[in-house]
Amino acid sequence: MNLSGITGGLRGAISHEDVRIPAGNFRMGDAFGEGYPADGEGPVHEVELDSFQIDVVTVTNEMFATFVQATGYTTEAEVFGSSAVFHLISTAPQSYVLGVAEGAPWWLNVQGADWAHPAGPSSTVEEILDHPVVHVSHNDAKEYCRWSGRRLPTEAEWEFAARGGQSGKRYPWGDELTPQDEHRCNIWQGTFPQSNTIEDGYLGTAPVRSYPPNGYGLHEMAGNVWEWCSDWFLPKYYRASPSSNPSGPSIGAGRVMRGGSYLCHESYCNRYRVAARTANSPESSSGNCGFRTVTI
Q1: Burial class (CB in 10 A: 0-12, 13-18, 19+), 205
Q2: Whole-structure pTM over 0.90, yes or no?
């Protein structure tokens, strides 16, 4: 893939803007009883973490383009030849739609969709370099981390950082979804999956820093794109997880994703809460999943 038109003069080391999260204790899990039982958001349990440094924003298209240009890396979506694109976002002709997801027909398997062509083969990231990179698998995210000398956050680190120093709140900013009628995250408004009123400003991804940061200075810890964590996903893990620096189970049904995305809605996927969790297989990619990183 020729990236010259995308990356332009993007060369050299990537600069990550980090926030240091202080060491501390917090109560991890769903304190409101709002989680999906199969997701294993409970029981609420005390967790102690060492201090760590985490990205202020998710890895952007610009940052990922720099990585690809420097290494020649090919993502798994490119290897497979297709990736999942939401039906209202796809720009691909019908002949490029290889199928739909079972039970979720709004997800199209689009030939030629990948991180550099997020809406289909004719699309580009050239005008959205400040948006989160998407169509990256867990394996792709790990390769980026390996190259940049960083790592994915553990699930416990992610939730602690997302809470922004608050205790037992529903969202990174508090308990109300839209305080003073202000949208604090990029999620679905309207009737899912047919009609999005776009009251928060975006049908798909929003540029990073589009919404106010949480108490730790981190942007978009709810909505916009799902974020890969390092942990394997095991719904019963919270019942017996270590209280100090838990790193997740040794096995699981996919890798943990946190934060929700622009497709989340209370009627379909109420997972933009800070305690919410889900998972996907490590090789999977889609138009609503990205990642942020932690210093080693």
Answers
A1: buried
A2: yes
